[in-house]
Amino acid sequence: MHGSVAAGWLLVALCAATGAYCLLRMRSSVEEQRRAAGGEALMGFGMAAMAVPAAVFTPPAWVWSAYTVVFGAAALHALGAVWRSPHHLHHLIGASAMVYMSVVMAVSPGSHHMPGGAGMPLVTGALLLYFAGYVLLSGARLVPAGAVAGGTVGGGTGWGDRPELARACRLSMGMAMVAMLLAM
Predict the structure, then answer these.
(1) How far is CA 90 from each of CA 3, 59, 157, 173, rounded to the nearest angstrom?
(2) pTM of the model as a whole
(3) Which among 32, 63, 110, 130 could disulfide-bond with 59, CB atoms 3.0 to 4.6 Å apart, if both were Cys?
């Protein structure tokens, strides 16, 4: 991504930390949480790698094709899982957004805009609207999920089973996606 080097490194740190926490969530005793955490870990680490400032490291052209294949496969997996949980629809949109950004970067790595393509800014705008709405909704859901005064940390559950941390994780990835789309 092009833009401020400091902002790029902050995005890398945020997304990598989120991906690492999602790996911890994969140890949950709840199967649905493990499934969701796997896709979110992939997104976190993929977003971290994509957010590395271009001034520091410009990946070879084949990397964008690899991103397209990996996140295309993630999107197909999420498409198959949408019937189990509506949350997988968000995974489908997120993976599709990563495919979109990879294609844009492959076609025009210097400017991040499709040459002569009037439709591509429309896709970016639609994704920005979706993720901005997702961030606002996720933030609103996070507010009432605070810890009970006097309660123990985690309420007797492991770090992977804390729903408020999972929500915060999703909120941070949504904000990172907004920042990455704005940099397009």
Answers:
(1) 27, 28, 26, 12
(2) 0.81
(3) 63
Domain ranges of the chain: 5-144+159-182
Measured distance CA(34)–CA(51) in Å, rounded? 25
SS3 category, 64: helix
For residue 114, count CB atoms less than 10 angstroms from its CB and return exposed for 0-12, middle for 13-18, buried for 19 or more.
middle
15 pLDDT above the threshold of 90 = yes
| Confidence bin at 132 (pLDDT 50/70/90) | very high
Q: What is the largest CA-CA distance in the chain?
A: 59
Contact 97, 127 (CB under 8 A): yes
Cα–Cα distance between 114 and 89 in angstroms, integer?
26
Is there a contact between 110 and 59 (Cβ–Cβ < 8 Å)?
no
Type of residue found at 32: E
Q: What are the residue ranges of helices labelled H in 82-162?
A: 87-107, 119-142
- Residue-wise pLDDT tens digits, 106-125: 887 554 443 444 456 899 99
HSE at residue 107, side-chain half, CA atoms within 13 A, is 15
pLDDT in tens, 38-71: 889 999 999 999 988 888 888 888 999 999 999 9
- 39 with 91: CB under 8 angstroms? yes
